[in-house]
Every structure is written in C-alpha cells, then in structure tokens.
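Methods: holo model generation. Sequences were used as deposited, without trimming of termini or removal of tags, and paired with ligand SMILES retrieved from the corresponding compound records. Each pair was processed once, and we did not select among multiple samples. The sequence and zinc ion SMILES for this entry were:
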Amino acid sequence: MNNSGGSVRVTSLRRGAGYKNTPHEGEAVYRVDRSNRVLGNPYRLDDVHDRAARAHVIAAFGRDLERDLAANGPMSAEIGRLAERVLAGEKVCLACWCAPAPCHGDLIAAAVCELVERREEAQAAGSTCRTGAEMSDEFPAKIVQGEAHAVDGSARMASARCRERAS
Ligand SMILES: [Zn+2]
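and the model returned the structure below.
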C-alpha cells in the first residue's frame, strides 16, 4: 500500500475451490506467467512439487532481473510502468500460476515496491525543494536582479541535498 492507495501483490491465475490467491474485484490483473514475453519466467519448472527446482528457476530469473535492472533493460522499463500504475492508485495483481507457492512474481513485486518507495521519496524530497524555489516569489521585483543568484544558489543546494536523501 502506498500513499495513493495503490498496491502490488502476487496472485494466481488458478480458479476454483481451494484457491485463495485469485485477484479480488477492483484489482488490476497483470499476467507475469509465460504469456508475458518480458516478465514471464523463461526457466521451466518441470515438477511443481519440487521445491529445490522451484527455488532454482526463481533464482535464475532473479539473476536476469538484476542484470536487466542494472542495464535499464526491457524488464526494468516494464517494472517502471507497473510502479507508475501503483503510484496512480491501482491495485496491481501480478498473476502467475504458482501462488501461494513461491513465484518469480515475488521478485517482480519486490522490485516494483522498491521503485514505488524510491519515487515517493523523490516526490517528497521534490516538494521540500520547491519551498526553496517558492521563496523567490517573496523577493520584491526591484531586488530580484541582485538576489537572484543567492536564491538560485540555495535552491541548487536544496535540490542537491534532496538527491542525496532520495538515493
Ligand atoms: Zn509463478
């Protein structure tokens, strides 16, 4: 859950009695199963009951994801779009077939959450920075010329501090 009421969680596409992980009404379903060419897990799990094999294919996906995030690749771009949706207040369900068993979707959800938190921090920091810029409105027009450099300077310092906080 973030400030806008948006959220991201992992659900299962399985339906029927006994499956408690199906998306609820009002949630936006985003498939991360193999039909998703970008965020589906290409590493196959032959036996769904084999826990070690499951952990292995999730870890393999995680390594690809980390590389992609570091390189701002297509997975990173898609995760950015999901984060935007959460920030806009959508309740996003990452739907695969695994939940409640561990799923590579858990890693995607974690990456989306992290990005949402970072952007919220950046936004909060941004609003702090704006107070520095707003100060310039208080300066009477006749001294703006002389004071402008000082205002610009402090605004720059403030935004530099914000960047430190946000990173
Ligand atoms: Zn899965």
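The longest helix spans residues 104-134.
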